[in-house]
Amino acid sequence: MLLIETLLILALVGWQAVVFWRNRYLAQRVGTTYPVAGAVAVQPIPFTAANPEKDFAIQYDALITRDASPEFGQIIVDTNEYLLNNRGAAADFSILKDISERHAEALDEEIQAQIATPLYLGLLGTFTGAILGLVSLVGNPFAEVSENPHTDASFSNGDVQHFLGGVLIAMIGSLFGLAFTLAGNQLLKQARAQRDRNKNAYYTFLQKALLPKLNSDMQAGMSNLKSVLDSFNAEFFSQIQNDFFSKIHEFTPLIASITENISVQKRFLEQLEKIGYSELANATVKVFDRVDESAQTFEKFLGYQQALNTTVTHSTEAAQTIGSLLNRLTALEQGLASVPQYLQQHDDALRQQVAFFSQHGKLLADIGAQIRQGVSEGVHRMDVELDGRLRELQQEATEAHEQWQRHFRELNSNNVYQKITEYLNPFTQLPAQQRDLNALQERQAGLVAQALQRLEVRIAADAALQRSLLEQVERTNTVLEKVTQPNWFQRAILGKK
Fold first, then answer.
1. Cβ–Cβ under 8 Å, residues 162 and 136
2. What is the pLDDT of residues 129-153, one digit of tens each?
């Protein structure tokens, strides 16, 4: 098992090294994103329009560089495209800065996403080693516990030593992961500092060299535009003066048509005079009478029209209200359509939690059963040993001294309290692990803690019983010494001391 853990940790360390070298390469790219100061220059670039017969060749100011990184090369390309499309106008420094920042942030986010990968791989190795060590130590945790204490297999020192060795090997992976992560963060910090220095130098170059040149080019273009407009105005007015008299001859037919229209109007007035203005006035009065008669009808029509307009206005408001209600109903329908999906996700999460709690509850129940079984067997062995000691003390009083010495050696070699303590050592970390569980697991952990407290009380009672037994043995030894001492007759007559 240690060989398997060692191979796994070596594979994880190799994986961590590969990720670290990749992070180191990305950090170098971050540091060299922007060139050093003086590596960028401004150069006029000729540009021919798409239609050379109508458009003439122009020049625009572009950025050039040497030995640029791929990221900065893309920044130069995008900046030159912006300068080409924005030629003749004032360049915006915020747009140039935004073009640069997007490419730099893309590379920075790429390395930031995987800078802590060695640390996570180290934690993976630690947990894997601990799990393999526990598997080799516990074996099958779901197997039935043997009722025979002589065939019950407990944790030996060799098993615990192998488990601790596996954990130590697994923690080496975490140590390498932490070291690789710290080294990667340090390299990234240095690369960012170098990038920021070069970036500030690049921005300073844009503000000192490129933007003033673009502004001066715009002023020169405005001056050229003014001269072109002046020449156009002079040519335009001279052309108007030359063509003025020719345009007057072109207006002669129009004047003739106007004269003819005036003649027609003169004839109309002559005919009107022949008819008579009195008849025209009478006809006009009749027309106005008819208009007066129809005024009331028009007023009623206007009232109907106003009522119709009011109705149309209210209808429009009602239509808007109905439209807003339909929009709200549509939003409500969409929300109700998404409710089953949310409920399904909630049910899935609840099923996963119930399965998780059931699995851990079963595991805790198995652990509690093993603890109770071990304690019961230990107490049973203690009762058997104590009963045997009492029977042997009553039956073999003459050999009490040697018997009790042998029993004391056996008790010292088979210390039940020490064995129980060794059995409980693997579970000292159990409360710390159960704090991460939910309320159900906390209640189960509380029950286990209460059981352990009762076990400690039982062990304390057994220890008190052992102490009282030792006191009884000491009193028995004292009585035996007094019994075996020679009396005055043996000392005086037989000479025994």
1. yes
2. 777 777 767 655 554 545 554 444 5
